[in-house]
Amino acid sequence: MKTIVVAGMGPLLGLGIAKRFGREGYRVAMIGRKAEALRGYEEQLKGLGIEAAGFPADLANPREVERAFAGIRARFGDIDILEFSPTNWNKGGYESTQALATTVESAKFDFDLLVLGAIACARQVIPSMIERGDGGIFFSTGYSAIQPIPFITSLCISNAGLRSYAYCLHEELKPKGVYVGTVSINAFIADNTAADPVTIADVYWDMFQKRDRIESVFGPV
Questions:
Q1: Which of 57, 93, 99, 172 is the right S-S partner for 64, CB 3.0 to 4.6 Å?
Q2: What's 39's domain CATH number?
Q3: What's the sign of the alpha-carbon dihedral 112, 113, 114, 118?
């Protein structure tokens, strides 16, 4: 049975991806900061017949990332897909940083999670994927990764960095049989709307099945 790791599990995109891939028979390992929230998602997924388990960790902390993935491998074995989509919104007050107000601290706050966290997670799954000659890694960003948005300058910097990392990783891993994709979301995600999480998750499933493109944009361009 195959396993997807949703790193940065939340009630919208993360849960939508978990449901979509779970429907295809994947077990779901979830990484998030709050153990109580993870238990809630686990119960929701189990109610849908999807095997799931939560592994609490701060993705900006490499040691916690390593511990979480060790727990996932102990529970589920090899990891077939990694999806990385954490958020800093409402965590530290840096979410609305204009360019002139951007500081080393505000930029580092986002960079530690969104770029260094992505690298830490990817390095946990890449060796076994290369060994098997198969697997998939997804990085999720906002549209600011492509088109800078001045009022979230700090976040733009990290989103663009994460997108660049995805492209570079794709070049190295494609010949080894490992798929890398990035999805930039230009919409307000909400249940029962055009940007319903499960609808967005269909994009990830389609990309992984076809493996014919590195990037998709969900929403208007």
A1: 57
A2: 3.40.50.720
A3: positive
What is the total count of domains within the chain?
1
Which segments in the chain show pLDDT lower than 70?
88-96
Residues, the chain, total? Answer: 221
Domain carrying residue 136: 3-218
Task: Specify the amino acid at residue 98.
Answer: Q
Beta carbons of 180 and 169 less than 8 angstroms apart: yes
Q: Judge contact between 118 and 60, C-beta under 8 A.
A: no
CB 179 within 8 A of CB 135: yes
Q: Alpha-carbon distance 49 to 1, whole Å?
A: 14
In the block, tokens 């790193």 appear at: 7
Q: Is the pTM of this model over 0.90?
A: yes
Largest CA distance in the chain: 50
